[in-house]
Write a structure and sequence with these properties.
Blueprint: E1 14-15, E2 22-28, E3 32-36, E4 39-44, E5 47-51, E6 58-63, E7 69-74, E8 77-82, E9 85-90, E10 96-101, E11 108-112, E12 115-121, E13 130-136, E14 143-145, E15 160-165, E16 172-176, E17 182-186, E18 193-198, E19 205-210, E20 213-218, E21 225-230, E22 236-237, E23 257-262, E24 265-270, E25 275-278, E26 285-290, E27 296-301, E28 304-310, E29 315-321
């Protein structure tokens, strides 16, 4: 059982000024963003682009149907789902390398154990109860994965809301729609349930898996649980290290929290508190930083921070900075 254990200790953080940030590009408010291995990819309307993180220059561009599952980097490709089509793009040119057809709209996908794993919700909505499918990357039949009733009572055979894998494809996990406090580790070769983990919070979301550590967010609003789970042992991996005195444990000071795994850094964002850059292999904070009002830390690309701000006109600005010790 996890309870979001936290061990703060006062220490100075880094305060960024707007003069340290420079505009890279301005996008529609609903534009997506992916950071992977130093590259910056943007999904805007029906186009995906690769940008130079230093200048914002478009290096490659490709048209795509409306993206229904966030793109991610796996192996030598960039994967995304557009409706019932799942495609692998070349990470440099964005040319289509492989294409697979699914039996419905794909809202979550991962690559593990030489297979593509994806979720097709019954009603087509992201996060809704759906079925998990396995598609061998080298060809072969697509198969639906069945779960035993004890994994998710009341699931009626289609319990999965999301699937996630680590970068190496050696760890695979899913969250459930009917049992929102549980997630499970699966065999990346067969999809069999290897272990189940219970969180003392509702609405469990796996933000990312770094090595053997699954970083999860649970709870609603200001009462979030933020913690890691060692998938080999099932033991919790709390976030630890030095923190500004003003940064209280999640849920105790009216501060909602969120986690985001970006490359080799776990980004922790709090409302009204400094953000944290954390080593995802250990859970220990490397540094804390305070951004100017109205900016939210969104990721790291090519040793540069990416921060977002939404203006009155509803457009989101991407800004970068290069010199935060322990973070970039």
């Amino acid at each position: 059982m996890l309870n979001g254990a936290w061990k703060p200790a006062p220490t100075p953080g880094y305060a960024l000024r707007r003069s340290q940030l420079h505009l890279v590009t301005t996008l529609p408010a609903d534009a997506g963003r992916v950071v992977a291995d130093g590259d910056l990819y943007l999904v805007r309307s029906r186009v995906i682009q690769r940008l130079d993180p230093a200048s914002g220059q478009v290096l490659a561009s490709a048209r795509t149907p409306k993206v229904t599952a966030p793109p991610f980097r796996a192996g030598h490709g960039l994967w995304l789902a557009a409706g019932s089509q799942v495609v692998e793009l070349d990470t440099t040119s964005l040319r289509v390398e492989h294409r697979f057809s699914a039996p419905g709209t794909v809202t979550s996908l991962a690559v593990a154990g030489s297979s593509l794993w994806y979720v097709v919700p019954a009603n087509g909505r992201d996060g809704a109860a759906g079925r998990l499918y396995r598609q061998p990357l080298q060809g072969g039949h697509t198969t639906a994965v069945a779960f035993p009733a004890r994994t998710d009572p009341g699931s009626h055979g289609s319990p999965v809301s999301a699937v996630m894998a680590n970068a190496a494809g050696t760890q695979l996990a899913v969250t459930f729609a009917a049992n929102i406090t549980m997630f499970a580790r699966l065999d990346p070769a067969t999809g069999a349930v290897l272990a189940r983990y219970q969180l003392q919070a509702d609405n469990v979301i796996i933000d990312g898996i770094a090595g053997d550590i699954a970083w999860v967010v649970g709870g609603v609003g200001h009462n979030n649980v933020l913690a890691g789970v060692d998938l080999r042992t099932g033991r919790p991996r709390p976030i630890t290290g030095t923190a500004p005195a003003s940064l209280a444990p999640p849920g105790t000071n009216g501060q909602g929290g969120w986690l985001q795994l970006t490359g080799q850094t776990l980004i922790e964002t709090f409302l009204g508190a400094p953000d944290a850059c954390i080593n995802p292999a250990t859970g220990r904070a490397r540094s804390y930083l305070t951004l100017p009002a109205g900016l939210d830390l969104a990721g790291i690309a090519d040793h540069r921070l990416i921060a977002d701000t939404t203006t009155i006109t509803g457009r989101t600005t991407r800004l970068l900075e290069t010199s935060v010790p322990g973070c970039t």
